[in-house]
Design goal:
The chain has 73 residues and is mostly beta strands. Helices cover 12% and strands 49% of the residues. The termini are far apart. The relative contact order is 0.28.
Length: 73
């Protein structure tokens, strides 16, 4: 998981993740990863509208957000 986070961070991409909070609750979050450490990472969380620190082992999935531009017909 750490490698996926690093890759997204290095490319400055927007990501969506499924995260398990300490109480076991699952949340889906849209984030912009700012820095990745050994056991945690810092990201701007669009759900909370602030910079947050997340534990890497609580991330269940992460993927970059791919946006498609609309084409005029």
């Amino acid at each position: 998981m750490r490698q996926a986070l690093l890759k997204i961070c290095e490319r400055h991409e927007l990501a969506e993740m499924i995260y398990m909070r300490a109480d076991g609750t699952l949340t889906k979050r849209r984030i912009r990863i700012l820095a990745v450490g050994m056991d945690s990472f810092t990201a701007y969380c669009h759900l909370r509208h602030e910079k947050r620190t997340f534990k890497t082992d609580r991330v269940l999935s992460v993927q970059r957000v791919v946006s498609r531009e609309r084409q005029a017909i």
